[in-house]
Design goal:
It is built from five helices and 14 strands. By secondary structure, the protein is of the alpha+beta class. The strands form three sheets. It has a six-stranded antiparallel β-barrel with strand order 3-4-5-8-7-6. Strands 9-10-11-14-13-12 form a six-stranded antiparallel beta barrel. A two-stranded antiparallel sheet has the order 1-2. Keywords: Disulfide bond, Hydrolase, Protease, Signal.
Length: 344
């Protein structure tokens, strides 16, 4: 797990959104020639910060921002046994890097969006995302490296309690899907995973054959735990000030120790916890924190994606307003600058 630090939260260029929302009617009117349906701010539920709905109540799924259900959660074939993941097995797994050095995992959820942990992003570093590869130091022809344009953390992320440990990474360019690069599905509001369900966590762990400099995409099965059971197990191990598993978190544990894999090893943080339903893979969690890596009696704790789905979709759709506002955005910036000068 990456060590927590000063998170890079706030959203950089998306900070302009606060001002742009005041001019939303102008932006919507400018788009009327292309799309006559008007965007309105819908009510939020769960842990989200609001979602963008179409007038009339239909959810707005924007091209290049939110994947359709027909394109996400597919891979070439299932994984069998406890071996390193071959290529194409987890095509949504990405590596978040600084200066071409792996820092955290993540998952592709749309052509320009990656989901990861808030504690993975710190300071004012320049990040890139590597997709389509399993051996990070290989010269794979399938690998794609894209610069990061922006990172948006959940507003109330707390690195001490690890609450709200979720962040969205906006890529500078849209990625083209292939057999090696595919988005994972996000769960619906009513989607529920019962305790005892076996899901899979993937991440970039160090392997003995590559020594201290090698990273390979590894995976392990995780049995989903009820939060009361998880809290009891966590409090038993971490004393006297145990972290508490709260709303917005989900737990999993591995019944048999894997010598080369532990979901809280360095490089695994930010990676996805995925469950298979009806031949489709759905991301239920984000690797967040744990105690005593690879011990079977201690669960790993993940950010519960369901709890933050409204925030995820709302953030992506709000960002699309900046993208589709076109020529209005420079004019809005100019108007804001002029208004400041007038008040001086």
């Amino acid at each position: 797990m990456a060590a927590p630090g000063v998170p890079r939260c706030g959203g950089g260029s998306l900070g302009l959104l606060v001002w742009l929302l005041a001019f939303q009617p102008l932006l919507s009117e400018a788009r009327a020639g292309r799309n006559e349906r008007r965007l309105v701010l819908g009510s939020s539920s769960g842990g989200g910060g609001g979602s963008w709905d179409l007038a009339g109540g239909q959810q707005r799924h924007l091209r290049s921002f939110v994947p359709s259900t027909g394109t996400c959660g597919h891979r070439v074939m299932r994984i069998v046994g406890g071996v390193p993941s071959p290529e194409r097995k987890w095509p949504w797994q990405v590596s978040l890097q600084i200066n071409n050095v792996h820092k955290c995992g993540g998952s592709l959820i749309a052509p320009r969006w990656v989901l990861t942990s808030a504690h993975c992003v710190r300071g004012h570093e320049e990040y890139t995302v590597r997709l389509g590869d399993t051996l990070l130091q290989s010269n794979s022809q399938n690998a794609v490296v894209i610069p990061v344009q922006d990172i948006i953390c959940y507003n109330y992320y707390n690195y001490q309690t690890m609450r709200h440990d979720i962040a969205l990474v906006l890529l500078a360019l849209s990625v083209n899907y292939s057999a090696y690069i595919q988005p994972v599905c996000l769960p619906g509001k009513d989607f529920e995973v019962k305790a005892g369900t076996v899901c899979w966590a993937t991440g970039w762990g160090r392997t003995l054959q590559f020594g201290e400099t090698g990273w390979q995409d590894l995976r392990g099965d995780q049995v989903i735990l009820h939060y009361t059971t998880c809290n009891r197990m966590v409090k038993k191990q971490e004393k006297p000030f145990p972290k508490v598993v709260r709303k917005g978190m989900v737990c999993g544990y591995h019944e048999k120790t894997l010598p080369s894999w532990g979901c809280c090893q360095g490089g695994d943080a930010g990676g996805p916890l995925v469950c298979q339903f009806n031949d489709r893979w759905i991301q239920m969690g984000i690797v967040s924190w744990g105690i005593h890596c690879a011990l079977t009696e201690v669960p790993a704790v993940y950010t519960d994606v369901r709890f933050y789905k409204d925030w995820v979709y709302g953030t992506m759709n709000q960002a699309s307003i900046l993208d589709s506002g076109g020529f209005f955005i420079p004019w809005v910036c100019l108007m804001l600058a002029l208004s400041i000068l007038v008040t001086l």
